[in-house]
Amino acid sequence: MNSPFASQSLDSTDNELVESNVTDSAGETILKIALPVPLNGHFDYIKPSQLPVSDCVPGCRILVPFGQRKLCGIILGTATKSQLPTHKLRLVYDLIDTTPLISTELLSLAQWVSDYYFHPIGEVIFAMMPTALRQANTAHQNHQAYWSITQLGQVTSKKCSPAQSKALGILQEHPQGLSSEMLTSLGVKLQSLKALEKQDFLQKKNHELKPWSAAKQSILASQPPQLTTEQEVAIQDIAAHQGVHLLFGVTGSGKTEVYMALIHTILTAGQQVMLLVPEIGLTPQTLSRFQKRFNCPVAVMHSQQTDTERVNAWQKAHHLVAPLVIGTRSAVFASMPNLGLIIIDEEHDASYKQQDNLRYSARDVAILRAKTRGISIVLGSATPSLETLHNVNNNRFQVHELHQRATGASMPKLQLVDLTQQLAHKGLADSVIQAMQECLSRQEQVLVFLNRRGFAPAIICNDCGWECACNQCDARMTLHKRKNCMICHHCNSKKSIPQECPQCQSVHINPYGSGTEKIEDSLKGLFDVPIIRIDRDTTHTKKQLDNHFITIRQGKPLILIGTQMLSKGHDFHKVSLVVLLDIDGGLFSSEFRAEERTCQLLSQVSGRAGRGDIAGKVLVQTYQPKHPLLQLWIDSTYQDIAQYLLTQRHNAGLPPYSYHLVIRAEASQPDRCQLFLQQTHDLLQDCQQVHQDQSVLILGPVSVMMERRAGQHRYFLLLQAETRQDLHRLMHRCMPQIREMDSTKKVRWAVEVDPAELNS
């Protein structure tokens, strides 16, 4: 597949014109159309004489011919002339919308995203829209289904299924009713609602989409708790000064209550609020918490919704029905005509950076959107990114610190467990096992963190050293004992577990290392309490996750084991001990951001301990107890760690003290990648010489750490400069020529600005 940036063309046809659509453009109005195709630039079409110019408003959808197809496009503007010969221009078919679907603000944002990330404007605009609205036959919806509990449903004693009981319970808490989209986001299935409707326990009504008004009802559904002094100061300062604000609070310091107070102010003023969370798993609990606080419709947006759910949420935000939007990365593009505040929770999280197709940073796009609109944006984190702290140090962002936990609980005590001095029993040091036993004997809970799923990351022949490798990737396959197979975690290919070594026929092949599945087995052999494992292998659906959380919050003694799914955003008040296993790899990675992410992970996971009225303790197993970062983590604050890392970055000339742009290429044959990137390297270098501008350092081409993935060889070219302007100036000069190179058509390639990882 060619790059989405390849073969730049402003032509709207494949040189095969439909004669009935050909016209003389003299005196005609030219429509500039953005189309969802991997070609750079807009496309010129002729407006039919019967279509009034006044109807052709930027942001409206329009149906056009494109080669032999009919495509839905977005009007960008009008002109009287085109750069193309008039005989190549074609008539549009039909105007779909009477009012703009995409606002002028979002069109401007799309243009910035297109220019900054070197991505076709048409694909950017259509990425902002729900899939259902990208089709010509989908119109605006002016109504939405709402479900409410009937009088019979309030008093019924009939035994219902657990799913139906859950639906009834939720709607008993919301007698005014909830939309289908909202109920789905809370884990209620449509079939449960329909079954209850047949029994007259629920009723469904179609409500017209009308703008929500703060004046018509009380905004608060429940009263907020008493705030701490630090929280009140932060709220007042943020409300008083427009700009970019960092809410820098330790885990459990009550950042969410600060968000809620700010949201209340904005809703009272009749404006909308966008709240971004890093992961889908955090959306339901966040939604539930905000739904209980605010008496207003909430639109939820994330990637696991159906097309219908997504378009319903989009329409609610677009028509001002929902003053509050809660979503993951893509919600940054939500159509919110009256946006008054943006909040990004866990701003440091890597999931805010999209790694394929349109490779944007939701955090950076949100900051630009807030700045353009003249509103504040709040970035919340207990472990802010180094880029954000660098902006604070340079007075570009305002910082508000929360040093104490809102409940008054103390921060957990941190302790390193030196594996060079202790025996480990099935992956757990003796002192760790003893600490877990003491914790459970006090009727408390333990969280064991290991960021590696499966039983073992490899199986190895003891006689010849053979490893079970993936045929499609340069990677070992992971043993999954429960599934009785080997799985590649990069391409998801599977193999049966070998019974003998294919290289020397030895039967002495054994698992090497530990994953969550193996640690779970070890714990079952050591402790007689429930053990709950939460990772992608055990928790496929929101219902499974909810059921786990219900069990945990009952407060009975248990052991919770999991991966990053448990690292942030969860309040487990009975967890008093957190154990972190095998974190040394992050201290010696080739990725220059690895140490930063390891420290963030350590702090986030540690923050799960002692959040209730029980003192917390954190044990970290390591073979590197003398490592400077671990020593800092034990003796200092995250601010000290961040300053240490910033000094390292400054000395090495790495971001945030410089800026990166990566040109990636992949192909089934490595020489194709090398040729394309080498020619690109030479072109960029020649361009710098011609313009006597050597401000950009060009490194490569080199392969990524795991060169082959899913059968494709992967290489990249790294560009580094002291300013973003230097990078963009060089790339904008060279992109047209790069697109026209013959080698470009033989690889899949993309430009990534501000890459989160180099070796991904």
Task: Break the fold down into its secondary structure elements and pairings.
Layout: E1 30-34, E2 43-46, E3 61-66, E4 69-79, E5 94-95, H1 104-117, H2 121-127, E6 143-149, H3 151-155, H4 162-173, E7 178-179, H5 180-185, H6 190-198, E8 202-208, H7 229-240, E9 244-249, H8 255-268, E10 272-276, H9 283-293, E11 298-301, H10 307-318, E12 324-327, E13 339-345, H11 362-373, E14 376-381, H12 386-393, E15 398-402, E16 413-418, E17 424-425, E18 428-429, H13 430-441, E19 445-449, E20 458-461, E21 478-480, E22 485-487, E23 494-495, E24 509-512, H14 516-526, E25 531-534, H15 542-553, E26 559-562, E27 575-580, H16 594-606, E28 617-622, H17 628-635, H18 638-652, E29 659-667, H19 670-690, E30 696-709, E31 712-721, H20 724-740, E32 748-753
Parallel strand pairs: 9-14, 9-15, 10-12, 10-13, 11-12, 13-14, 16-28, 19-26, 19-27, 25-26, 27-28
Antiparallel strand pairs: 1-2, 1-4, 3-4, 3-5, 6-7, 6-8, 17-18, 20-24, 21-22, 22-23, 29-31, 29-32, 30-31
Helix pairs in contact: 4-6, 7-8, 16-18, 19-20
Please provide a brief summary of the model.
The chain is α/β, with parallel strands linked by helices.
